[in-house]
Amino acid sequence: MEIPFQGAKLLEADDNKVGIVLFHAYTGSTNDMNMLGRSLNKLGYNVVMPLLKGHATADIMDILDTDFTVWRKQSREVVKWTTEQFEQVFVFGLSLGGLFAIETLIDDSLSIVAGGTFNSPVVAEQYVTIDDVFKAYTRHLYKRNGESDSFEDEWPQIKVSYTEQMHALAQFKKSYRDRLGEIRRPVLLVQSLKDTMVRGADIGEVVKAMPGVDLTLRTFPENTHVITVDRNRSAFEETVALFIERNIQE
User: In terms of Cα–Cα distance, which of 216, 196, 189, 213 is closest to 98?
Assistant: First the structure.
């Protein structure tokens, strides 16, 4: 089977019963989800790992020149395509990817069984930014491109674009916050307590924003933000697998 999305990965199983969509993080790539995807594929599930536009390139402006409307449209197209290929679909996302996963879970027009988020700032009491991490990532790209000498001169303008994108992120979250309680599918919320980007305390705000939703909340005291590649990820992978197994419809 060919997947009609540039840069996406598809791990096929022996049948078309279950398809799982895994959205990566901001500045990330499908590599964020490789280990989790392979562990789920070994259990007999088809796994779709999209690449959000502008990511996994050598130019940081490819991300900054892409706005949230593009990513939202892309995420919905991927989920819709997956529902057309497989009988039962689950949707999950890491960090930014979790925001797109949760938005698709709100939409009753999409044939999704269940899904969830991993260390995602779905609801945050404080303004969420990743300034230091983003700057370090940008510096790394400049170094890799042999352009380290121009980084400091160009960083101020890059930061302006980045700040605008973070404000767009805040507006995106506001656009669906009041609808979180409308979700009628089981939801898995995962939070690492050693996450330095998304506060562990904010997971309580997410729960409060989803009254009446069938929630499974799991916290991992020793894990960090990118839990999908963490050395301590085995318990996390088992949690995701058990959630899927419990919600598969006979």
Answer: 189
Q: Nearest 5°: phi and psi at 5?
A: -130, 125
Contact 112, 185 (CB under 8 A): yes
- Residue for token pair 């491109």: 145
37 φ, ψ to 5°? -60, -45
The number of residues making up the chain comes to 250
* Rounded Cα distance, 223 and 51, in Å: 24
Q: Which residue has the tokens 């230091």?
A: 132
CA–CA distances in Å: residue 2 to residues 8, 82, 90: 10, 12, 19
pTM of the entire predicted model? 0.95
* Helix, strand or coil, per DSSP, at residue 189: strand
Instruction: Note the helical H segments in 126-212.
Output: 131-144, 148-177, 203-208
Q: Provide the pairing of β-strand 9-11 with 46-49.
A: antiparallel
**Distance from C-alpha of 27 to C-alpha of 24, rounded to nearest angstrom:** 9
- What are 75-125's pLDDT values in tens digits? 999 999 999 999 999 999 999 999 999 999 999 999 999 999 999 989 865
Low-confidence ranges of the chain (pLDDT < 50): none
